[in-house]
Amino acid sequence: MKRHGELLIQEHFSQNRQMLFLCGPRQVGKTTCAQTALPKALYLNWDIEDDRNTILSGQNSVIERMATKPSVIFDEIHKYPEWKNFLKGFFDSTSTDSIHILVTGSARLDTYRKGADSLMGRYLLQRLHPFSVAELIQPRLLDEEYTAPAPINPTLFSNLLNYGGFPEPLLKANRRFSNQWKKIRRNQLFREDIRDLFNVHEIGQVEVLAELLRMQSGQLTNRAALARKLRAAENSVSNWISLLEKVYYSFPVRPWSKNISRSLLKEPKIFLWDWSLISDVGARNENFIASHLLKAVHAWTDAGLGDYGLHYLRTKDQREVDFLVTRDDSPWFMVEVKTSQERLSPHLKYFYERMDIQHAFQVVMNKEYEEVDLFNINRPVVVSAQTFLSQLV
Predict the structure, then answer these.
(1) The pLDDT value given to residue 182
(2) Residue 112 in contact with residue 84, Cβ under 8 Å?
(3) How far apart are CA 393 and CA 297, in angstroms?
(4) CA gyration radius, the chain
(5) Separation of alpha carbons 240 and 247, rounded Å
(6) Residue 121, class by beta-carbon neighbours within 10 Å (0-12 exposed, 13-18 middle, 19+ buried)?
(7) Domain ranges in the chain?
(8) 3-state class of 49 per DSSP?
(9) Pairing state of beta strands 123-127 and 308-314?
(10) Rounded to an integer, what is the distance from CA 272 to the centroid of its chain?
């Protein structure tokens, strides 16, 4: 099955000489996309002893193994303490239009970027997300933000919602396999990525925190309350939540405010990258839409179409809309998620009438697909989730 990531890689190296950093969760398909897009590349995985020894032996050893290969893929190299200096030297010594360097990683490569980063100007970043409705229908390069609506097979849509967007459990669509896969991935996430990569000793407490976040997905995050439940300092809880974001377990959605500093002080809502972990139907539906919107704002931003953000709206008198997508720091469209209710939310109408915003969608999960170009509608409207998501990424 063709992936959006394969198209990203091929497009990048057809236009750019910089390294490509492809980051994303464990088991999301980074290695498969990399090797499919660059079939003649030398593949070096830091977790494989021979490959690690090659990297530790220096740039010339890698070049020798490349021989006539036009590309090299470094997988999980960020686990090497000197990885940035290594890549800087390797890029500078091999920098030509004919040598392609792809770097993949399951802990966020983008978190290592700093103002004085030695790799500045030497790489571009793309983020690979789980499968989405639009990707299952037809992966595409992003010349513009949205595309025409298209139908998805109802069984495939149901499998995506229930088994998640990670390739193996989605394509197998088998409950027993899915449960086994989730258990193995969880162990790798906590026992390898968090404990070893970030040198965290309180793994048990971090696992309990992850379970609490799973149970309250989409709710306001009260760090003080979480700290009391974990019998830990609030600063520790904040650090652990940050770690869970770095390894793509969860992601925050913060409130929108014209005053950015004030917005950042308010509590975010926290969602999971794997929505299939959530048992409550309503919470899973909301997380499902949140994940699709996050994928869209990341893809649009990484493609250079603008600077996009994902937020929620909430007033002091408890009026709330689930999601707001911004473009270049200005509101673009709102999304309210419902399982089956088709009566327009008064909160959606309230914000639409008071904000300079183009679109307001009440996305209904159980509503059947309709052949409607939703981004041509400039009023609050009730829409099918299948239709809406088919127009994204």
Answers:
(1) 97
(2) yes
(3) 9
(4) 21
(5) 11
(6) exposed
(7) 4-127, 137-390
(8) helix
(9) unpaired
(10) 10
Distance (Å, rounded) from C-alpha 232 to C-alpha 12? 45
Determine the 3-state secondary structure of 335 from DSSP: strand
How many Cβ atoms are within 10 Å of 155's Cβ, its own excluded? 9
Residue 263: band (very low, low, confident or very high) from pLDDT cuts 50, 70, 90: low
Helices within the chain (DSSP H only): 4-15, 30-37, 49-56, 59-66, 83-94, 133-137, 154-163, 167-172, 175-188, 203-215, 223-230, 234-246, 260-265, 281-302, 346-354, 385-390
CA distances from 103 to 1, 74, 184, 240, 249 (A): 22, 5, 24, 26, 21
Q: Give residue-wise pLDDT tens across range 74-107.
A: 999 999 999 999 999 999 988 777 789 999 998 7
Task: List 71's β-bridge partners, or say none.
Answer: 100
DSSP 376: G
Contacts of 349 (CB under 8 A, 6+ apart): 360, 380
C-beta separation of 164 from 170 below 8 A = yes
pTM over 0.85: yes
Query: Which architecture characterizes domain 4-127 according to CATH?
Result: 3-Layer(aba) Sandwich (3.40)
What tokens does 59 get? Answer: 């740039």
Q: Are 323 and 335 in contact (CB under 8 A)?
A: yes
Instruction: Map residue 363 onto helix, strand or coil.
Output: strand
Determine the residue type at 1: M
The pair of structure tokens assigned to 387 is 């239709």
The SS3 of residue 243 is helix
Count of CB atoms situated within 10 Å of the CB of 143: 8
